[in-house]
Amino acid sequence: MCGIVAYIGNKQAYPVLIKGLKRLEYRGYDSAGVAILNGDMRVYKRKGKVKDLETYAKDKVTRGSVGMGHTRWATHGKPNHINAHPHVSGNERLSLIHNGIIENYATLKEALIKLGHEFESDTDTEVLVHLIEEVQKREQLPIEEAVRVALTKVVGAYAIVVIDKEEPSKLVAARKASPLVIGIGDNEFILASDATPIVEYTQRVVYLNDEEIAVVNKSGDLQIKTIDDKIQTPFIEELDLNIERLEKGDYEFFMLKEINEQVKTIADCMRGRINAAEGWVNVGGVTEYYERIANAKRFIVAACGTSWHAGLIGEYLFEELARISVEVEYASELRYRNPIINEDDVIIALSQSGETADTLAALELAKDKNALIYGIVNAVGSSIARTTHSGSYIHAGPEIGVASTKAFTGQVTLLTLMAIHLGYKRGTIPRSYYLQLLNSLENIPSQVQEILDKNDQIQYIASEIKDATNALYLGRGYNFPIALEGALKLKEISYIHAEGYPAAEMKHGPIALIDENMPVIVIATNHSAYEKIVSNVQEVKARKGKVISIVTEGDKAIKEISDYCIEIPDTDEPLTPLLSVIPLQLLSYHIAIMRGCNVDQPRNLAKSVTVE
Ligand code: M6R
Predict the structure, then answer these.
(1) Which residues of 410-448 are buried (b: 16+ CB within 10 A; e: fewer)?
(2) Are residues 159 and 60 part of one domain?
(3) For the domain that residue 578 is a member of, what is the CATH number?
(4) Structurally, how many domains does the chain consist of?
(5) What is the pLDDT of residue 144?
(6) Is 2 a catalytic residue?
(7) CB 555 within 8 A of CB 535
(8) Residue of 193, 360, 404 to test ligand 1 pocket, by largest number of atoms within 8 Å of CB
């Protein structure tokens, strides 16, 4: 949540900052602001999106080769100009941008008010810049030392950048539990919440670690220290990020681009990990810790949102194919229970961004209990990826639309590969079925394309149900998590209230909601419990519900009683989610577009939830 970017070097900072903020806007889009240093420090802030800031700053002075920018997802204080970052110290010497939450801000604020500080905003961040000002004034320290000492008094999460007008040739940055990447160019540095604003200037980056402070200056020096004052040697890494993947190309929205990319991203996730012709599957992270993983007493999946839905599919996969017992936990609940986690458990963290605060905290808790931590992550170099013992990247490329699509299918692909790998090696699936699954898995990308080719039909169905105020999604077995995911996709981008249920549970409550105005989306492919779900659809029809079914090609029984029916290609049951989710993604997308919603930046949401 919140995106931060800063520049120091020989270029004009403002265009670099604006471009960077647009790349980071997926992290929050309530308000945006910049501070530019050029003798004076000029701060421009606006409620709304980066383009509103751009319009506002159009006729203002933006010259200067040192600056920083922020795009906000409000935590403390409403989204307005005053609460927007950067925040400025009382003496107007310092300005600061922040991603995270200062938990003890109220106590600090009270103490600072007693010392005569006056506050303008309702934010926790403003307290931080006043605290640094106070330390700097009292102890007469250079800015980096003032920041370091001030941070020893702070409880919470932060990635910050600070500019000091009196020390104009440096930027100071620090992090704890919120990400910060430092791009190293030729006598220039670009600092940002992720690598996307950096990649077009340099491939060389340093990922700042927790409780580290960095000072970069115009002569090209980078120094890193810990908050307890130990000098660190920067570890420079090369980025592997293709700039084209950060652009919308011919698509109007990232979400549609990302839905269509799934043909490729699922194949990319499997690349080098499976070969059906040669009869092998190999997930590197599993091989590396095979004994511990294969002999685990239990897998505990920790995740949030869509990643949690992928985890539920993992439960079906691991239990059926590898006969390993699985528990799927909301990370936010797991971290605050006193969970029983043992050394022979494996914790699987699923996260697109690799930065979700609750997931990260749950992992750290499990690590303290000596469990093996396995990450399934999309964002390379992210905090979760760096916290785990082992893991696998899903290689979906940057996912920018707030609604997760290609990351979900990447996570499910990876879980499927792991389950087949473990099932075969543990002898819980016969070779013939193993080979069949490998073949079927290799066919998935082309089958996804077949579904994407039904876009016009799905768009038509969307036009028929777009005015609904509620929707119900039903599925059984592997398609139950897909019902949950379909409902989440619809509600988060179109603001239609939607619920996902196991089809049989409908009779225990939700059936009371069904009438002629209620679209009921039933995912009913031709596998186990098919006959049962036919009966569930009959029950919906008997109450005049409008049935939209997702069925396997050639289906008769459900097609006959549905109002609208989308056929998907046949595959083995454990692989069905990879196909059945695609029409639901498209359906939500079209409904949201028809309702005039901004699908890439739905209200109140942010892509990367780095606060709890
Ligand atoms: O980056 P993560 O996968 O950890 O994010 C988890 C959720 O915040 C995320 O899946 C969210 O639910 C999406 N908006 C769903 O589309």
Answers:
(1) bbbbbbbbbbbbbbbbeebbeeeebeebbebbeebbebb
(2) yes
(3) 3.40.50.10490
(4) 3
(5) 97
(6) yes
(7) no
(8) 404
Annotated active-site residue 269? The verdict is no
How far does residue 570's CA lie from ligand 1's centre (Å)?
29
d(CA 205, CA 208) in angstroms, rounded, equals: 9
Which atom of ligand 1 sits closest to the CA of residue 609?
A: 8
Report the alpha-carbon distance of residue 221 to residue 239 in Å, rounded.
20
174 belongs to a structural domain: yes
Residues 44 and 132 in one domain: yes
Choosing from 244, 267, 284, the residue where a domain stops is 244
216 strand-pairing partners: 171, 222
Whether residues 433 and 550 fall in one domain: no
Whole-model pTM: value is 0.86
Residues with CB under 6 A from ligand 1: 304-307, 351-353, 356, 359, 402-404, 488, 492, 608-609
Please tell me whether the peptide bond between 86 and the residue prior to it is cis, using omega within 30 degrees of 0.
yes
* Residues of the chain falling short of pLDDT 70: none
Assess if residue 481 is contained within a domain: yes
Of 449, 476, 495, the domain-final residue: 449
Query: Are 220 and 340 members of one domain?
Result: no
The CA angle 567-569-570, to the nearest 5 degrees, is 115
Claim to verify: residue 51 and residue 110 sit in the same structural domain: yes
> What's the angle, vertex CA 417, arms to CA 411 and CA 422, rounded to 5?
125
Whether 54 and 198 map to the same domain: the answer is yes
Query: 93 in a domain, yes or no?
Result: yes
Structure tokens at 460: 């038509």
Closest-lying ligand 1 atom to the alpha carbon of residue 411: 3
Q: How far apart are CA 225 and CA 232, in angstroms?
A: 5
Angstrom distance (rounded) from CA 344 to CA 294 = 10
* Residue of 22, 45, 425, 607 with catalytic role: 607
- Domain of residue 353: give its range: 248-449
